[in-house]
Amino acid sequence: MERRTIRIAMNGVTGRMGYRQHLVRSVLALREQGGLDLGDGTVLWPEPVLVGRREAALRAIAEQHGLEHVSTDLTAVLADPKVEVYFDAQVTAAREGAVRRAVAAGKHVYCEKPTALDFPSALELARLAAAAGVKHGVVQDKLFLPGLVKLRRLAESGFFGRVLSVRGEFGYWVFEGDRQPAQRPSWNYRAQDGGGIVADMFPHWDYLLHELFGRVRTVQALTRTHVGRRWDEEGRPYEATAEDAAYGIFELEGGAVAQINSSWAVRVHRDELVEIQVDGTHGSAVAGLRSCRIQPRGSTPRPVWDPDVPSAGSFRAQWQEVPDDGPVANGFKAQWELFLRHVVRDEPWRWDLVAGARGVQLASLGLRSCAEGRRLPVPEVVL
Ligand SMILES: NC(=O)c1ccc[n+]([C@@H]2O[C@H](COP(=O)([O-])OP(=O)(O)OC[C@H]3O[C@@H](n4cnc5c(N)ncnc54)[C@H](O)[C@@H]3O)[C@@H](O)[C@H]2O)c1
After folding, report:
1. Is any atom of ligand 1 closer than 6 Å to the C-beta of 289?
2. How far is the CA of 15 from the centre of ligand 1 (A)?
3. What is the DSSP string of 144-165?
4. Residues 230 and 260 occupy one common structural domain
5. Cα–chain-centroid distance for residue 232?
6. Cα of 345 from ligand 1 centre, angstroms
7. Is the Cα torsion angle 365, 369, 370, 372 positive or negative in sign?
8. What CATH number has the domain bearing residue 184?
9. CB 84 within 8 A of CB 8
10. Is residue 112 in contact with ligand 1, taking CB distance under 6 Å?
11. Domain encompassing residue 308
12. How would you classify the pairing of strands 108-111 and 83-88?
């Protein structure tokens, strides 16, 4: 086997997503499996260059994982011809500037969502990358979750017949930070720092709905900041200026209606932190991160509304589990593999900065729809 090294500048690896999902569970996991077998006698060996603002934190990570390259000088890293890919999982507000610089330096770029703070900037990034002729990608991890892979399989096999509705419930209680530390960074709750659950979650809903059930044609959202006071990483109280819940309705091309609640102020009484129910003329499914259950038309029970009679048996027991299709892979790693193959082998890839801009557009229109108290059309995004 011939080994081909690909050097990847990874910015934001001290963060929650950058460290755990992208560095450890994706890039280092690829190294642990001996590299990425390209199937032509070549193994791709990702060589991360950890980039960030705090050298000591980067060095600590590098040491822990036996990595060689760290830098606090993004300009120098981007000027290095050995670096082929720039990856960004910084706070959202820092992304656009860094991605612009990487594109200008001729690097292929892969980054977290949302790609920018506003739609014109997100579209501009896509245009710049296209003009520079670099490969570009945006994380759309939910598409690669085992439960949602099963849901896609059902949709593509025609299981649902005509899809009528999609209802999604996402969320969990994020601690305020006073008695117990918050599970999410404090910038998430400050609009001025690029926070808010709409910017965070609507990009996910956009690609999920788009790919599985049809392009989002209209959006109507109601947002709330349910918890107005939180405590930051240093234990200091601050005012939450960004919404922590969004109740959205999306009309899809093809006629289905999607209704998705996203909340960091909800306690979980579900099997998974995200659950998507799809009802179609021929069958229904409920999918989560890992599992997916179905109820086909032919075995749909006959519930009858009668408050005087206790329901016979459990409704949940009337659903059938879709079996796993082999070992469960990490969704982030699965997408990394495809992106790297796209970069070095030019294999097909569609989760690019245009798709990223679409997600940012939906978030912007969602917020506007709430501010204006009306449903808004969602234009198609074209370069
Ligand atoms: N795909 C997903 O499911 C998913 C989930 C959560 C977050 N995200 C996205 O990933 C990105 C990072 O989110 P996170 O939760 O890992 O955030 P985080 O706060 O844990 O990490 C942020 C990273 O950015 C760095 N950074 C750079 N400039 C900064 C600045 N000016 N202030 C503060 N930090 C700065 C930090 O050092 C850190 O490495 C966000 O854009 C977020 O939208 C994606």
Report:
1. no
2. 5
3. GSHHHHHHHHHHHTTTTSSEEE
4. yes
5. 24
6. 29
7. positive
8. 3.30.360.10
9. yes
10. yes
11. 142-327+360-377
12. parallel
